């Protein structure tokens, strides 16, 4: 991986130190090099930090590129519902990479930087998260203005994307809002995806990835709720935007059967987000008394269990080593399964060959 270390950005080296061997790259370099290969980069939303060593161990063993990410709701400038600002998250990932001697390339991604309407307030919040992420050391961002009408989505996305592109980071955009479990929305059409990417191109905004609504859901599926992912439509969208060198980002993978995940790469998917699964694994390994108190807090406050992450962050972060090791081991096994389904095995060496 020594050749890849030379591709790190100066701002990253200024932050982590010139002698640091951590291979943090920008996602544009990675995705552009691998866009024509049927492989998927696993992107991990890390709401609780303890799965990270297990994920890194699996990626090291399988010679795989990975991504670590936080969405606006998970980790904004105030810490979101996980208590992690961009600076805290960046430092957490870098420290784990150093402690575990993680040698494979990875990127740190600001996921789902949502702009829910056309107000100046929403735009300002999103811009602040992007600038904070750039300052912290993020090397990739996803702008999600899909809540808006397509012309506004184009305008907002283009305005927010400029500093990202100027800093040499990777860019993901979204059309067709991806809903949470139990909610329904129309899946993205080929026409709106093509119009969106085409209009961005006219404004000299060239994203690496497009997230679409293809039927997947964020979070855990509800009891009895079935997985319906339209891979045929996904492939049609991919073929339409492929001339723009744009691939598909798949969101909402938690709960999707592995055989179905194993087909994703054939339909132009090159980045796959896994978030709630790592939270589930962390919860499985936490001390029972801590989980009981978290659940009680959620019942009393009528909140989803993920919202207990921030008020209990200090306790979660400082659980005893046997619990940390259990979570890391569970994450290692799950990461291996997912990386193999994503066909990510060997992607680190493939990248090294592609960008010599």
Descriptive account of the structure:
There is one protein chain. This protein is α/β, with parallel strands linked by helices and 356 residues long. It contains 15 helices and eight strands. An eight-stranded parallel beta barrel has the order 1-2-3-4-5-6-7-8, surrounded by seven helices. α6 links the parallel β3 and β4. α6 runs parallel beside α7, α8 runs parallel beside α9 and α11 packs antiparallel against α14. The model has no long low-confidence stretch (mean pLDDT 94).
Low confidence ranges:
none
- N-to-C SSE string, H for helix and E for strand: HHHEHEHEHEHEHEHEHEHHHHH
Query: Strand content of the residues, in percent?
Result: 5-15%
Question: How many separate helices?
Answer: 15
Strand runs, count: 8
The largest sheet is: 8 strands, parallel, barrel
Distance between the termini: 10 Å
Percent helix range: 40-55%
Mean pLDDT: 94
Strands ordered across the widest β-sheet = 1-2-3-4-5-6-7-8
Taking all Cα atoms into account, the compactness measure Rg is 19 Å
Structural class: alpha/beta
Shape: globular
């Amino acid at each position: 991986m020594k050749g890849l270390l030379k591709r790190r950005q100066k701002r990253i080296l200024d932050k982590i130190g010139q002698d640091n061997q951590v291979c943090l790259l920008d996602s544009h370099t990675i995705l552009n090099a691998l866009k024509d290969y049927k492989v998927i980069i696993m992107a991990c939303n890390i709401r609780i930090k303890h799965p990270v060593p297990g994920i890194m161990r699996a990626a090291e063993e399988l010679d795989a590129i990975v991504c670590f990410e936080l969405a606006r709701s998970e980790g904004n400038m105030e810490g979101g519902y996980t208590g992690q600002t961009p600076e805290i998250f960046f430092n957490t990932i870098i420290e784990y990479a150093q402690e575990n001697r993680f040698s494979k390339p990875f990127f740190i991604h600001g996921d789902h930087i949502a702009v829910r309407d056309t107000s100046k307030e929403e735009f300002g919040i999103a811009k602040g998260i992007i600038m904070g992420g750039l300052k912290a050391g993020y090397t990739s961002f996803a702008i999600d203005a899909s809540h808006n009408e397509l012309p506004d989505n184009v305008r907002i996305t283009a305005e927010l994307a400029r500093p990202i592109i100027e800093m040499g980071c990777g860019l993901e955009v979204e059309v067709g809002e991806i809903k949470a479990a139990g909610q329904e929305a129309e899946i993205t059409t080929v026409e709106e995806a093509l119009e969106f990417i085409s209009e961005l191109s006219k404004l000299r905004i060239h994203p690496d990835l497009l997230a679409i609504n293809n039927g997947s859901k964020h979070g855990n599926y509800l009891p009895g709720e079935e997985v319906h992912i339209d891979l045929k439509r996904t492939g049609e969208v991919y073929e339409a935007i492929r001339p723009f060198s744009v691939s598909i980002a798949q969101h909402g993978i938690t709960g999707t059967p592995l055989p179905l995940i194993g087909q994703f790469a054939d339909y132009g998917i090159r980045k796959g987000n896994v978030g709630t699964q790592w939270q589930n694994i962390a919860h499985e390994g936490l001390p029972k008394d801590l989980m009981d108190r978290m659940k009680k807090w959620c019942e009393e406050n009528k909140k989803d269990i993920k919202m207990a992450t921030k008020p209990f962050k200090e306790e979660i972060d400082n659980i005893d080593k046997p619990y940390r090791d259990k979570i890391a081991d569970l994450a290692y096994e799950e990461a291996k399964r997912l990386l193999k389904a994503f066909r990510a095995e060997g992607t680190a060496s493939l990248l090294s060959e592609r960008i010599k």
